[in-house]
Description:
By secondary structure, the chain is mainly β. The protein has one domain (about 30-149). The chain contains 1 helix and 7 strands; from the N terminus they run αβββββββ. It has one helix spanning about 1-15; strands at about 30-35, 40-50, 55-65, 70-80, 90-105, 110-125, 130-149. It has a 7-stranded antiparallel sheet with strand order 1-2-3-4-5-6-7, with no helix packed on it.
Amino acid sequence: MKAIKNLIIILICLQTKIIAQNAQFEVWGGYIGNIALNQKWRIWNDVHIIPTSFGMFRYGITYQTKSNYQITIGPAYLRTSTPFSNKLEREEHRIWGEIQKNFKINSKFRYITRYRYDGRFRERLDEHGEIVNDAFRFNHRHRWMNQIR
């Protein structure tokens, strides 16, 4: 049974299409921290910087349920570049939340699945890619991560 379960997971991974960006050399700095307050509550903090693309500060509070789901919600602040500039000048504010669950496959591996929602308030750009001051556009982003560790 264990071999069949592992074979199914491998077959699913092999069917996944991977799309990558064509980019020049970039440096990506990041820090992700998770500070336990007690067994049920944690403080999440996440900082990333790519000097010519974006800088992000994301914070949140995490609650762990009795069935080991981790539910996190919080704000984020970003500075991003525009289509015609490498300067981090475009503001973005987010409210985000995620739910994550870990499953033990065997003594060496576990499967992690996570759904994340971002409500994004992005500074509006005009038709020339220039920032329109004090004007923001709202959009949604949904992400689903699957991982075997």
